[in-house]
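Data card: per-record layout.
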Amino acid sequence: MNNISLDDIKELAEEIQYCKSKESIDQIISDFHYYASEVKENKTISERIQTYIRLCLEKKHLLPSEKLANKQREQKRSFGPPPHCSKCEKLMILRESSYGHFWGCVDFPTCWGKKKAISI
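The structure for this 120-residue chain is written out next.
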C-alpha cells in the first residue's frame, strides 16, 4: 500500500457522517477513488473502499447542494430573527408552503402556532 494505511481509510470513512452538502460528500468520494487506485492489488481493502463509496453515494442523494443551503440561509436572514409563538412562547422556524413563507412553531404538531413571514 503506497503510503496509505487502513487507518487513513477508516479516518476518511468517519468523515462521511459530518458531510452536510453534496459537494462535501463528492470530495470524500474523490478521496476514496484515489485510495482505491493506490491499493488495487489488495482486494479486501478495495472492497471495503467500494462499500464506503456506495454509502457516500446513498447519502449524497439526501443532502442539499451547497448553493441551495446558502440560498436557504440567505432567505432566513431576509425574514429577520425568529419570533416566539403566541400560543406556547417557544421559538418559531421559517417554513414554506404553496402560499409562501410563514413562521411555524418549533413544537409542531403539538402546537399549531403560525405567523405570516414578512420579508425585511
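Known properties of this structure: The chain has two domains: 6-60, 79-116. Helices lie at 6-14, 22-38, 43-60, 66-78.

See the next section for split statistics.
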